[in-house]
Amino acid sequence: MNLFDVYPINEITIVKAKGSYVWDDKGEQYLDLYGGHAVISIGHTHPHWVKRIEEQLEKIAFYSNSIRIPLQQELAKKLGQISGKEDYQLFLCNSGAEANENALKLASFYNGRKKIIAFSKSFHGRTSLAVAATDNKNYVAPVNENDNIIFLPFNDEEALEKCFEQNGKEVSSVIIEGIQGVGGINVAEISFLKKIRSLCDTYNAVYIADSVQCGYCRSGKFFSHDFAGVNADIYTMAKGMGNGFPVAGIIIAPHIKPKHFQLGTTFGGNHLACAAALAVLEVIEEEKLMGNATMTGKYLKDELQQIPELKNIRGRGLMIGFDVPEAIKDLKKNLLLNQKIFTGEAKPNVIRLLPSLALKKRDAEQFIESIKEEIHSLQTV
Ligand SMILES: Cc1ncc(COP(=O)(O)O)c(C=O)c1O
Predict the structure, then answer these.
(1) What residues have CB less than 8 Å from 163, skipping those under 6 apart?
(2) pTM of this prediction?
(3) Whose CA is nearest to atom 3 of ligand 1?
(4) Section 364-371 average pLDDT
């Protein structure tokens, strides 16, 4: 049997990982500033995370949600404390798309409405409603096309206001990434997020903060939406939540009440996933990784801004993007080939940095040296 070939891949086989480094099968070491697509939050194979999972595995890995799982309550408590959303309610699932799917569905159960507002360049996942709310025709199969999604330009307050004036009574939810990831690291403006909050309040619509990529301290705050100083009704999270162990969730404001059977999952919230997610939060707290994301992110952004060839440096914390002009378009490829540094990309010409939140200053310095070297050699070819 062959694999279903849906991913363009680098011909590299990684066999070992530690902190911000990975090694291939030939023993070559790479600096990982991509984190397997923003997933590695506390660092690869963090010893506390490994220990927590191993110990849990010896006890029980899985039982369904038909019994009480105290680890879920422990996780909810810790997540509430660290995120500052202590009065929210946690529903656990397995992936970012599933989290968004549940959030959109719950919003519709809550207000009985069907319309969803999403934005240009958004990415919310590959499942039916999440992909329908994703602004990329290549990902949307005919069966996913959905008349209920209204796409508006990102950060356009006037368009949003107008849309609510026209459709307000039908709008179930507004879904927005605090910082668009797949779309190319585009930061939602504070005034835009505040406007979403106030319009959702006026029209009884649900504000869904897709924090799958930009959440979990990556921006330097627990949720990047927190920069706006207003609360969303539902936050969705995944990637960094398990540091590579598949676990996701949504947290739900107290005015949205649960009803049996509206949401559900077989695997979501299993013992092993909760142990992994707890380990992540414990390390985030113990090693003050939110502060590190702010500090190391600022260092990187300041340094990148000094490099004249790179354009439009943007992002928050350790979620950084910049445009690569045509003349040095091979920069990402050469960073990997020559400098052994993994970075991310967004089409057509954006490099994305999504490293572990524990990225060390000396690794950030190494990256800056390496990128300058590669830009120089691309210009002298
Ligand atoms: C903002 C955002 N939402 C949702 C998803 C989907 O997450 P998953 O691939 O875990 O389904 C992603 C994945 O990249 C994402 O970046």
Answers:
(1) 117, 150, 152, 171
(2) 0.98
(3) 124
(4) 98
